[in-house]
């Protein structure tokens, strides 16, 4: 079976964190610490760099500047610096949870 890019599947909000779920993930993530490329916003629609916690099958993002998150973006820029890969070695595809 050919390896596939991990792609965004959905998210849930838990307090001041946003939990992101993926498809085609395989055995988890490959990443340096800290993970770069995530930004997070609240209802004001202002994005801030996010602190990222990597779990086996999901990513948890938060920022002290965003107490009530509603949206997250990964590698959503012309010049990206994302450092998140699936266990297959393929990069996580860029995504956003908002439609602004």
From TrEMBL:
GO terms for biological process: carbohydrate metabolic process. GO terms for molecular function: sialate O-acetylesterase activity. This is Sialic acid-specific 9-O-acetylesterase. It comes from human gut metagenome.
